[in-house]
Amino acid sequence: MGPLQVKPGVDYTAQYMEGTFTPGMSTEPHYHPGPEAIYTLTGEVCFEMPHGKIVGRAGEGVVMEAGHLHTLTATGPEQRRSLALVIYESAQPWRLPAVGWEPKNLCN
């Protein structure tokens, strides 16, 4: 997966995560001040963004650019497990709320 686009001369920190969601679980709308890569191990995940949605299935990866507003929802009948990497600007939190954008429930 990749490449993950970063700005030259900016200090970044890596946030590694393992996520387990039961079908229907979702995150709050948010964005990251750096790129994000998610690899789905089992199940299915749907990323809703202001311009549409992307579905990731087991064995697939999704890369999002820095500042990309989104929410993610575990879709499909089985538990969703994934690995994620967010490379974010060290001077900022790794995750920020998506102010002014409300999802349209494209993943339900």
Description:
The protein is mainly β and 108 residues long. The chain has a single domain (17-97), classed as Jelly Rolls (Sandwich), CATH 2.60.120. 0% of the residues lie in helices and 48% in strands. It is built from no helices and nine strands. The protein is globular, with a radius of gyration of 13 Å. The chain starts with 11 loop residues before the first strand and ends in an 11-residue tail after the last strand.
Relevant terms:
108 residues; mainly beta; Jelly Rolls; 4-stranded antiparallel sheet; 9 strands
Number of strands: 9
Oligomer: single chain
Residue share in β-strands: over 45%
**How many distinct domains?**
1
